Amino acid sequence: MTGFRELFGREADGRWAAPGRVNLIGEHVDYAQGLCLPFAIAERTVVEVAARDDGRARLHSLAEQDDWSGTLDEVGPRSPDGWAGYAAGVLWALRQAGHEVGGIDLLVTDSVPLGAGLSSSAALECSTALAVDELFGLGLGGTPSGRRALAAACISAENDVVGAATGGMDQATSLLGVAGHALLLDMRDGTDRAVPFAPADDGLAVMVIDTRVRHRLADGQYGVRRSAVEKAAAALGMPSLRAATLAEVTTLDPDLVPRARHIVTEIARVRETVALLDAGRLSEIGPLLDASHASLAHDYEVSCDELDLACSAARRAGALGARMTGGGFGGSAIALVPVDRADAVASTVRAAFAEALYREPDIRGAQPSAGAERVG
């Protein structure tokens, strides 16, 4: 395996890692100033980085094909393209925010599974941001408020450089995650709260079912959904759909009603889920996960046949609830499963996929884990 020294002719200054995330509930509401309940996972993207003093960046990934090398002045909207835009975009965003950031050599050695709906892009952005913060003495990574500023730079990198319309949930989770907890993110006021979420303590497990159907959030569909939500809010004379009611939603143009209805009902489901977790009633959230998936599949139309099959097969085998997670159009589903049913659920899902002539899904557990950190 090619190492940092072989690529760049010197040793790295350090290694930084940032996790992917699973969103327990609260899907596609982050850009509607809604409430989300994600948690950071054990799978991490690891970058080895060394600072440069000549304003250049050299980026290489062991998981991707295309390297990129150029000056920081070459980085901007849609440049560079591909995976390198996520890393280089962070440098651009921090400079735009007024921070003195120099060039870097960067090697991505490990990655959150790509295209699985577990936010590999945010993990790359956040590991890069934490490295740059430390190497150039920005002083942001050591406090929650500073990490929120780094998250803002990562969001800008994805929105403005890559051109993907992310709402910011993924970046906040990757930088602010707490082991044994989910993170209640209020996307209207920017606050967050760690909510107890330790499934193993209740004899439960979160199973992630990667359908191995790959999606790209920058392909336009994510933006189409976001535009519909913004049009609905404007039609109601609101800054967002956060405060909208179902009665108000029914007054919208018919083509906007289902999109807006998902937002309103999903935010309500997040509140119900948090109330149950705060009360120590984790085993009762299954029906809320099921309702979330139904809304995403029918009102928001971001599911697909493989995701629907993963959820239905998991429920049939004993899962308490299941839903797609992430942007949709492929990627992963999650299922809340009694530990003693985990093997049966996995076997049933694999058999269902084989019968449907789909690729075999990749199934793994997900542990609520800590956020980004230096690891070497």
Query: Roughly what percent helix?
Result: 25-40%
What would you call the shape? globular
How much of the sequence lies in strands comes to 15-25%
- Helices and strands, in order, run as HEEEEHEHHHEEEHHHHHEEHEE
Whole-Å distance between the termini? 19 Å
Q: Helix- and strand-based class?
A: alpha+beta
Catalogue the unreliable spans.
none
Query: Could you report the average pLDDT, rounded to the nearest whole number?
Result: 95
The total strand number stands at 12
Radius of gyration: 20 Å
For the largest beta-sheet, the strand count, sense and barrel status come to: 8 strands, mixed
Please work out how many helical segments DSSP would assign: 11
What is the element layout, followed by pairings?
Blueprint: H1 4-8, E1 14-25, E2 35-51, E3 56-61, E4 68-71, H2 84-96, E5 104-110, H3 120-135, H4 144-162, H5 169-176, E6 181-186, E7 192-196, E8 204-210, H6 221-235, H7 246-249, H8 257-278, H9 286-298, H10 305-316, E9 321-325, E10 332-338, H11 342-355, E11 362-366, E12 373-374
Parallel strand pairs: 3-5
Antiparallel strand pairs: 1-2, 1-12, 2-5, 2-6, 3-4, 6-7, 8-10, 8-11, 9-10
Helix pairs in contact: 2-3, 2-4, 3-4, 3-5, 4-5, 6-8, 8-9, 10-11
